[in-house]
C-alpha cells in the first residue's frame, strides 16, 4: 500500500469520440489544476494519458475526466493500468502518435455559448464575425478532406492564420487550441451578398434581413449546403417560394433566433428544447400552439419543424430579421442540396432574389438532421448535419466481424461502414430514383472508404433485385471478389433497432413490428405490416396485415384513392364498395377517377401485386377522410394529414376493431371491421378527427395484442419497433404504451432512424452476425 501523499503512476486509455473535440487541452488543463505530471497524446485507439501524482489528486482527475469532458466528446470506455514508475516533469501535450490516421471525424457542431457571446460583444475582435468558432463548435465533417483532422487537410487550408489567431491556436490554455477552422475578420472567410448578379457593398447580414422582411427569397450558403430562406410570417412570401420551387405541400423547416420565439408558436417539451439547443442543432418537429403561423408552411399538418441558428452567420441573420424564417434545403425539388456558388446561381437563380455567400468551400453535402420527441426519447427522422459521421457502437457479439459496407435501400438513402472503430452510418443522401441523388450515393461510397481507410471484406444490401443500391452492391462484390449479403428489408429494420440498443446474440430473439410503405417480400407480395421473430442471423414471419391489392403498383403510392378503393373492395366486396364510397360522400371524387380500369386491374392481377403495407393502409384512411384523395405531392402526405386530424381522444371501447385470422403461415391482422366502422361513423356525421383517432387507436391496440400474443407464444420478452410508419407519433406512443402494459420491453430507433435511413445499419449488423458464424 502507498503511504499518504506518495506519488503514483497511472496510464489511462480513453476511447470514443475524443479526437478533434478539444480533449487533449482539456486533459492538460485538468492536470495543471491538480499539479500532475505526465503527458497526453492521440493515437490509433483514441487518447492515451500517462499521469504521475498523489493518490487523492489522481482520484480527482479520474472523476473529472468523465464528468467535465468537452461538450463534443463522447466517452465509450476508460481503462486504467498502474505505472511502476510515475512520469516526471511538467504535464505536456504530445504530438499525434503514428497509426492514428484513421481515427474518425467529429460531426459539425452548432455555435457554442462562448462564441455566441463573443460575436455579440463590441469589445471582442470577432464581434459580428460570421465564421467564429472554437474547439467546442464549428465546421468539421463539412470541410474535411483527409484524416488526421489538421488544418492542411480541410478547406480552411486556403486561409493563412494571422498572428493573433496563431497565438490562440498554439496555446493549450485557450479554447481555440488546435481548433482547425480558427479564423477572424483579418484572416478568415468573408461574406458577400449578390443581388442581380452584383455584389452589394452594404452590410450583407443587414441587407439580407431587409430583403427577407420585404418578402424576398434569399439563398444562403451554410455549413453543408445552401438554404432557401423567406419570412415565415408572410403568406405571400411562402406562396412565392412554393411556386418557384415547385413544392406544393411538403412542409418547410423554420429557424428562430431563440427558444422563447419557438415557444410562442409551438408546444415545446423539455427534451425537445434540449435537442434544439444541443451541439447537433437538428430540426425538431413540434406541435403547433400559441400564436398562429401561416398554414402554407405545412398544409394540412399540425407539426412544424423548428431549428435554432447553427452558425454565427445564422445567429446574426436571425437576430437582424427578428422573426421566424423559413430555412429549407436549397435545391430543386427531388434533387440534392447545392453546395457551390456556380450550382446555386444555375439551379436556384429562378427561385432566389439574392444570394448570401462566403468563400469557404464545402467538402460534402450535409442536409439538416430532423428529429422528433416521441415515446420519451428524441428520435432521428433524418440523420445529417450534427450527427454524421459520429460512430455508433456495435453490440459486443458483433464486434469481431470483418469490415463491412452496407448500402441501404432505395429511398432515404444512407450507407453504413463497419470497421474496427465501430459503425459509421452516413448522412442522408436522398432517393436513388433521382439521377443526381444516385450520383451523390456513388460519390459517398468512395468518399467514406477513402476518408476512413476501411477496406470492406463483405458488402450488404437490400434483397430487392431492382434497387439501384442492390445493383451497385452486386457489382462491387463481384469486382472485389468478396461476399455479398442480401438482407430482407424488414429484417434490416428490426436489426437496426436491436443493434442500436446493444442487443447481443446470446439474448435470443426479439419480436419485431416493422410498419412501412413497401419492402420486397420474396413471396411475390409487397410487405409493409410485419410481425417478425428476429435474431441477427434469421427471422420468421409470424404475422402480417391482411394483403390487399396495390392497383397500379407505384401509381398507388402517389394516388391514395387507389388504396381506398382496394380497402373498400376488401371490406365490402366487388359489388358493395360503391355503396360504401357513397356513404363516405366520395362518389363524386371517385367518379372522376378511372375506377373501372382499376377494378379490371384488380380482377386480373395486372400490375396489381398484393401488399400488407401499413403505409398504404393509412393512405387509404387519409383518402377516406378527404386527405390528398386524388394525388400526393410528397411521400406519406395522405397518412400524415390523417394523423394530424386525429386530435380527439377516442373513448375506451370506441377504437375500431381489426380481425385476427390464423392461417397455416401465420396470423393475419385484417382491417375489414375497421373500415366498416369508419364508413358507418362518417355516414352518421362523425367528425374526421374522431374517426381518425378511433382508426389509429384501433390499429395500435390490435397490433399490440397480436404482438403480445406472439411474444408469449415464442418466449420473447422484447419488442422492437421500426419502419417509416412508426414516425406516426399517436400510433407509436399508444402501441408502445400497450406493449409496456403487457410487461414487454419496447425498443425503438433513436440515433438510427426508423425510416429507410436506418436500413444500412441493420444490414451491417445482420451481415456481421452471418459472417462471424460462417467464419
Query: What profile does the largest beta sheet have?
Result: 11 strands, mixed
Number of helices: 23
Low-confidence stretches: none
The number of E-state strands comes to 31
Please outline the helices and strands.
Blueprint: E1 8-17, H1 23-33, E2 37-43, E3 46-53, H2 55-67, E4 74-83, E5 92-93, H3 113-119, H4 163-169, E6 191-195, E7 198-199, H5 204-213, E8 218-221, E9 226-231, H6 235-245, E10 253-255, H7 259-263, H8 270-276, E11 283-287, E12 303-307, H9 312-321, E13 325-329, H10 341-347, E14 354-358, E15 370-374, E16 377-382, E17 391-392, E18 404-406, E19 416-419, E20 422-425, H11 435-452, E21 458-462, H12 468-480, E22 484-487, H13 489-500, E23 510-520, E24 526-534, E25 539-545, E26 548-549, H14 554-558, H15 560-583, H16 587-591, H17 595-604, E27 610-611, H18 614-624, H19 637-645, E28 659-662, E29 667-670, H20 672-683, H21 688-713, E30 718-722, H22 729-741, E31 745-748, H23 759-774
